[in-house]
Amino acid sequence: MDGLRVFHPTELTPECTQAFCHAVRVAVMGNNTLTLMHVREWGDDEVDEKFPSPEELLERWAIEGTSLEVERVRSRGEDVVRELLGYLDLQPVHLLVLPTRGRKGFDAWFSGSVAEPVARLSKAMTLFVRHGCRGFVDEATGAVSLDHILVPVTRTPSPEPALQGALDLAATLGASEARITTCYVGDPADAPLVGDHPLVIRQGPPAEAITALARELRADLIAMTTEGRQGVLDALRGSTTERVVRDAPCPVLAVPTAR
Fold first, then answer.
1. What is the pTM of this model?
2. pLDDT, tens only, 158-170
């Protein structure tokens, strides 16, 4: 994941700080470009002063000599999703880092019209960082703790994109030795085999079973494959992944089938 564009929309609130730290850490370790975007309401003319500073964060983390490029994008409008998709439709993006605040915050990303095709968005992985979850980037020091990754598996869609996306992210963050545990919710006879990674079988509602296992394992990341023609946001609507994102104890990486 080197030399790519990391995109982080922010509401410029303290609840976005955790996701911001994850976006900066991924970007700086992968020698990537970090794009920050804020959609401002009409009449707000102080956006420049409110943008979080990656430079100040790196100084606090005592990280020097980086080649990180930072872009700050401002947009006016009341429909955050429409403005976000409009920008992504015109710019190549490889990883989105989105802050959520459980059900309330998550709903904001799915309000309004998100059904229009956004071809480039459909190729982007999305890292959801829920406010208050146990993240894998220490906000105070920038230290990375990505030791255990949970990958739920199904026959359709294939879990391979999620597995590869998780491995790519781990490698970027210097965590190539991270353990991978796969899990299948349902009849053991139907479980697909994915490499030589340990497989855990669970029963019950898929989202609840996945988040419960993540807590039990103290997973640092959940990686899931999504599928859909309209991009990762539309692919998530009403899906198991959406419900996992709402309640996961750790960040969730959503990887579309077409990257």
1. 0.88
2. 899 999 999 999 9
